[in-house]
Amino acid sequence: MPRPRKRLAGAAGPDKKGPSGKHSKTENSDEASAEVVNSRSQKTSASKNCGKNLSNYWLMKSEPESRLEKGVDVKFSIEDLKAQPKQTACWDGVRNYQARNFLRAMKLEEEAFFYHSNCKEPGIVGLMKIVKEAYPDHTQFEKENPHYDPSSKEDNPKWSMVDVQFVRMMKRFISLAELKTYYQAHKATGGPLKNMALFTRQRLSVQPLTQEEFDFILSLEEKELS
Fold first, then answer.
1. SS3 153
2. Bridge-partner residues for 163, per DSSP?
3. How far apart are CA 4 and CA 202, in angstroms?
4. For FRET with 191, which of 54, 168, 181, 215 sits at 20 to 30 Å CA-CA?
């Protein structure tokens, strides 16, 4: 199983520019305490939540800059993904129930934007695709791993991951600041990004995109920044 040496898909939070944007992995713990249904019903629920309305596109955040968590560097950039065997890696470390449910709803060949988060200039840097559907995240059982979860049992694991494969770099970097400008405009006009989860559910490291959102963001590649 291809896996990166250092991965963090669980860190998420409102992205900020500059050193003050640094933050620890804190995905809504209230959701965790509220989650009590079994894994099968969770997957079913996730599939319903990710129905045709959300289409089959995703945005997935990872940190491109070195940051130690419990002594482990959690850096994993799109360049790191490209450097993996077959340009493929497992997307581990997600420790938020809603984000995990989105992982469980993913299907083979679905596309996702690779988003650099928690860095000087956050934004979308490339495209990848799902090449293996959800299966137990090994890091939840590894005591030395910063994402170890002693409450998770091997016969009933709490956390899942998928395998992703690099597709291509974006033709140009699509920054958070640029996306926010469109989001704010579209809220007023009813444009494609009016409900984009990147702004309505900022702390999620794995987020769904509608086809309209996905297509609009791809179209930005062809536009020059003013």
1. strand
2. 90, 132
3. 25
4. 168
